[in-house]
Amino acid sequence: MEFTNSQEDFLMPQGASFPEPGEDESRSNRKGIAEGETQAERIYEKCLRKKFKKELPSKFAKAVSDYALLREGDSVCVCVSGGKDSMLMAKLFQELKRRNKFPFTLRFLCMDPGYNEKNRCLIEENAALLEIPLEFYETDIFGAVFQVEKSPCYLCARMRRGHLYHKAQEMGCNKIALGHHYDDVIETILMGILYSGQFQAMMPKLHSQNFPGMELIRPMYLVREDDIKKWRDYCGLRFLQCACKFTEQLARNDQGKTMSSSRIETKKLIADLKKTNPYVEGNLFKSMENLSLNAVLGYKKNGVSHNFLEWYEKGHP
Q1: Which residue in 17, 147, 191, 270 has the fewest CB atoms around it within 10 Å?
Q2: Which domain, by its residues, includes 260?
Q3: Domain-embedded: residue 262
């Protein structure tokens, strides 16, 4: 079924307004603010509908439409890690559901891989503040990968993904939604080229190979990270950063200094390139759909490698 949500669906009623963060709560009864509205409705949701409508809800809806991420009757498990990206994704899904014209269901899941008490409390407090009905699922993934010396982050991500698929399927969902945004996408492209010698995109949706009938979707695909940060700061919100035990241990070993990584290096590289080429981010993104198979030495399809000599005499792959 065609996705029918339009950008206009996210507009606030004419004349409605909302208080700036930190303003006197008595202003909540001014014209345009209905009595009985909660703080989440008055501030966090209305600023999405008005101040950040173009940058956040509209781009969220565009990704869902352009990449056909939702269908009638879908049951989506919205995976919330506690960071700014997944928390905002949860709010945007709530907004989308209120205004969409075909039925689908949402479940909001936080898989606790072994957070310490402070981090777990922060997630719970933010979920309550934003009125996200978050369900928790405990695992010991952090403990399982903490002693792994080679690629612990990769192993952790794979294990978390598997647990999310399993739990979502158990909950009756057919899709899991992750909060990867536009900047994650272009950084992944460049990281693959520079660090792995491959061109491989982070796709907006994927069929699960190990959980038949399940899909992974990324509705934040067109949302810029800077706009997420602006929403967070405007609302005066504080979200969880990376909370794994491995990162904490590295930070302690380095006496609190910020640890470098291939993603951080790639992010800095893109920022430096943008100083002389303002189109670098958009060009990286466009490269995913402008690949010419007539001008590559080879490619892989379904795990099978193909060399250009296979089609060279024919003139096309």
Answers
A1: 147
A2: 53-290
A3: yes
In a domain, 173, yes or no: yes
CB 70 within 8 A of CB 76: yes
E strands present in 150-264: 175-177, 205-207, 215-217
Answer yes or no: is 185 within a domain: yes
Q: How is residue 44 annotated by DSSP?
A: I
Q: Which of 136, 90, 118, 119 is nearest to 242 (CA)?
A: 119
Taking only the tens place, the pLDDT of each residue in 259-299 is: 447 889 999 999 999 999 999 999 999 999 999 988 999 99
CA distance 70 to 102: 10
Residue 31 lies in a domain: no
Strand 205-207, strand 175-177: pairing: unpaired
Structural domains counted in the chain: 1
The whole-model pTM stands at 0.81
CA 284 – CA 279 distance, rounded (Å): 9
Backbone torsions φ then ψ of 107, nearest 5 degrees: -130, 140
CA-to-CA separations, 134 to 48, 78, 107, 212, in angstroms, rounded? 20, 9, 8, 25
What CATH number corresponds to the domain at position 139? 3.40.50.620
